[in-house]
Amino acid sequence: MTSVHTRVAALLAAFATATIVSSCATASKEDHSVPASGVPTGQAAAHDADDVQFAQLMIPHHEQAVELAAIVPGRSTNPTVIALAEKIAAEQQPEISTMKAMLSQWDVKLESHESGHAGMAMQGMVDDATMVKLDNLRGADFDALWLQSMISHHQGAIAMAKTEIADGTNADLIALAKNIVTAQQAEIDQMKQMVGA
């Protein structure tokens, strides 16, 4: 969806611009620049513990969605499913990069949440048994399980995003969360139609 890509690009550009302006105004204090990685520099934007938790949990949540999208071309013969997987990866990879940049700017490390994959904090994560099953399926059987798994995965992301919208402080992260709700709800609607068909 072009508008989604445009909004994500605009968010990335706005975030980078705001950070650069901030660094120019506060360069006399600490220098958090990491030029080699392209991470924005300057003073940390206003954020709270809810913002940090959302980013820390949504990054691995998105990473699993990208992983799920990556396995589709080798297992599905349905061009609509393949195109949807490409779209999901194209939307979520830039959001991962944005959230990682925010955590870096806030001087917060990205923690490992492998033990929390089945927990309530990261809702909708696909369990290991389903991942193994997906790896062994092909064709229509793969498509059906992949779509069902991705619907649940998206629903979990929307629930997490709504919590950030309600409780978060950082304007850029709240805007990203709103984008997640809009984009992923549209994809859920599409996937439900595909499952029904």
How would you characterize the overall build of this protein?
Residues 1-43 and 114-120 have low confidence and may be disordered. This protein has a single domain (46-196), classed as Ferritin, core subunit, four-helix bundle (Ferritin), CATH 1.20.1260. It is elongated. With 197 residues, the protein is mainly α. It has helices at 2-25, 49-70, 79-105, 128-136, 139-167, 171-196. α1 packs parallel to α3 (79-105) and α4 packs antiparallel against α5.
Give me some keywords for this one.
mainly alpha; elongated; 197 residues; Ferritin; 6 helices
- Secondary-structure content class: mainly alpha
Strand % is under 5%
Distance separating the two termini: 22 Å
In helices, the fraction of residues equals 55-70%
Please identify, by name, the CATH architecture. Answer: Up-down Bundle
Number of helices: 6
**What is the name of the CATH class?**
Mainly Alpha
| Relevant CATH superfamily | Ferritin, core subunit, four-helix bundle
Q: Average the pLDDT over all residues and give the rounded result.
A: 81
Quick one: how many beta strands? Answer: 0
- Per CATH, what is the topology? Ferritin
- The rounded Rg comes to 18 Å
**Structural domain tally:** 1
Largest sheet: number of strands, sense, barrel closure: none
Helix-strand sequence: HHHHHH
Please tell me what the overall shape is.
elongated
Which regions contain 5 or more consecutive residues with pLDDT less than 50? 1-43, 114-120
